[in-house]
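Researcher: Good morning. I'm working through a list of sequences from a screen, and I'd like to move beyond sequence-only analysis. For each chain I'm collecting a predicted structure so we can compare shapes side by side. This is the next one on the list. No need for commentary yet; just the structure.
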Amino acid sequence: MIAVSAHGALVRIAMLRGDNLTRFHLWNRERPDGVGDLYTGRVDAVEKALAGCFVALGAEHSGFLPDSAGGKNLTVGDYVSVRVTRAPQGGKGPRLKRDDAPPGEAPGLVTNGPGPLLELAAHYPAEEVVLDDYALMAELRPALEGRMRHDARAFDPVLEDEVAALAEPVARLPQGARLHITPAPAATLLDVDAATASHMAPLALNEAILPEICRQIVLRNLSGGILVDFAGLKAAQRQKLLPPLQMALRRDPLGPKLLGLSHLGFAEISRRRIRPPLHEILDP
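Model: Good morning. Structure tokens for this chain:
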């Protein structure tokens, strides 16, 4: 089930498997992230060192079009149709991909992307969409006719509590452990605190909490470089966690890559940046 709760321009979207929260999006309809938007753009600068070019999108906005996404062989002044594949985040502008649509006569927005709700509904076409707002239902009816149901408590108290916890920098883990989440421009550090979980052997504890760590990464949409500092393990023991961590990461729809262990013993994960992480939306 996809549960949707609207409060003015802010829409909360939760994907549920039974009682388990598996996906969460915060959609600000007044300030959409722009993923999927189609633009007519004008090439303003070609940067060979960056293997791409900067494209003016109108209204003093610009994005980066990599050579690998259709920017190769373009020159300054060319007009192209481009689609946003990564929202502005971390102080950087949007990432673009060339589109086959014919460009217009001036830089500017052509059509908006679907937004996270319609995108999620398209990925899970068999899931019912339960909303607490009749006006939003009317707006979505052309795309979701026959799949929607109104429920004033689309977010029940249990779900409300779990969603509220996603705004906190500390997440609860199984067996009484905690996960401290510290985002930075270059990477996000996940530090496991096992102080209250000393009844378990360190290796068994860290293996038991791996699925929840990966779930928190998805729910908070942490992306880019992610470093995980496990609790109380020697180097050889940390190596034993890599196969089960790789298995847990396979449930992630973005297909993150486990790069191994750093010299400091951190598990290194690379996860694609598409939509902004939750903490950037909550604290822009």
